[in-house]
Design goal:
It is built from 6 helices and 9 strands, in the order E-H-E-E-H-E-E-H-H-E-E-H-E-E-H. By secondary structure, it is of the alpha+beta class. It has 2 domains: about 80 residues, Alpha-Beta Plaits, CATH 3.30.70.260; about 70 residues, Alpha-Beta Plaits (2-Layer Sandwich). The strands form 2 sheets. Strands 5, 6, 7, 8 and 9 form a 5-stranded antiparallel β-sheet that branches. It has a 4-stranded antiparallel β-sheet with strand order 2-3-1-4, sandwiched between helices. The protein is elongated. It starts with a strand and ends with a helix.
Amino acid sequence: MEKLYTILVFSENIAGILNQVTAVFTRRQVNIESLNVSASSTPGVHKYTITCYCTEEMAKMLKAQIEKRIDVLQARYYTDEEIFLQETSLLKISAPAMLENSEVCRIVRHHGARIVEVNPTYAAVEKTGTTEDILSLYNALNKLGVVRQFARSGRICITRGTREQLDDYLAEREKERHG
């Protein structure tokens, strides 16, 4: 049965790695739902956070194929229960509509969002949370017809373990090299 998996990939910061990693998904006809790439807590290493719907067998296969890439240090897959996750979003809403309808501000407060800028034309609203939290806010405001723009980041996450598994892997690799 298919479910949402988060695949974390750690690689050296080399041009072209992103293309190699996404090609693994393309070849297996697995659609990437979200993708976030940033520096990791390990110097010189980048972290790719990729989400996709697939079976566990496919998640294992994707992990194995990604790890075959020369500059990939490690890949792992997780279910939502195994990680802490967040997304962030920005909404541009009509300022005149917001001032005319008190329901708009009530919805923003109810969803734990914050207004980060207001001018005569629009208000910018920021919301961080799960995909469901963000879409709930968007849908509530959109029903009122006040949303002018909407952007949502890809997922970011950390594992529930006490240490970054990559650090353990690199320490073991270094020990084998000198040992």
